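Per-record layout

source: Streptomyces regalis
name: ABC transporter substrate-binding protein
length: 350
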Amino acid sequence: MRRISRITVAGAATASLALALSACGGTSTSASSSSDSKGAKGLAIAYDVGGKGDQSFNDAAYAGLEQAKKEFQYDTADLEPTEGETDADKEQRLVSLAKQGYNPVVGVGYAYATAVKAAAEKFPDTTFGIVDDSTVEAKNVADLVFSEEEASYLAGVAAAKTTKTNTVGFVGGVDIPLIHKFQAGFAQGVKDTNPKVKVLSQYLTQTAQEGGFSSPDKGKSAAEGQIEKKADVVYAAAGLSGQGVIEAAAANKVWAIGVDSDQYKQEALAKYKDSILTSAMKDVAKAVYNLAKSVEDGKPATGIVRGDLKTGQVGLSNSNPKFADDTKVQEAIKTAKEKIMSGEIKVKSS
């Protein structure tokens, strides 16, 4: 008989968010070689800055966890980050999950690189995954990465075709190479489509610890500054901070372009959805689910696992009817997509 248990723990980084550890029976998946493992379980994820409820990156990972949980009928766990935590704190979180028998264990975000590498060495029979980092080279680690610049290029095409002021904006959460990919692709897409369009760019912080990915107020302020400079389409790659960008766009009756998830469909953003032109998506949910499936099938994925336009794991959402029904914009995006996939267009990543 299967057992069902649920443990709820408050997340320190976001007091309003609950930490759910849901369990519904064992699985045949191997969990760990550790003698104190409590037996095989299933998928566990540890969230990045912003935590669950960001309507973006972390929530996409959770969607992948939920899909795996439903399909494989096994235990899952999802853990919140803590404020000001160190690499050692992250490592301990991953080690704890591995000791409990979860397999795979996924760190959501590049900040987990050091922790994933250390935990993977301690638990060689557990498969670990890290989203958005390609530097963890280990036999039992899958580096789940995406060609964000390709989706961002298409967002740039959409922005250039939509703007009426010939000025658009980009708001990056943190000034790091990962977010540079979003900016580079977006700017190139804009310029290739209409060289007359000006791209305003701003990063909210230099480090994640300063709140670049978790401060809607910072995002709102940055977007308002760009809108004052006539930007009428603003693209945010800023995690939870992007909600502030979308709010500012709605208040000023201009367009916002969301990121990572289809933000037009996010319940927390429902009152702003008519101002969300599209979203540059990367299918973190599919990547997390696929890793869990590979372990469930007995063939764990390892090494760099990339999602791009060819795999269908990056692209633009078409949920907003005004965007989906705009023939000229859609034709331009289709043409750009075909040229990127054929190699005719080489999208910059920095």
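summary: The longest helix spans residues 177-193. Confidence is low (pLDDT under 50) at residues 1-39.
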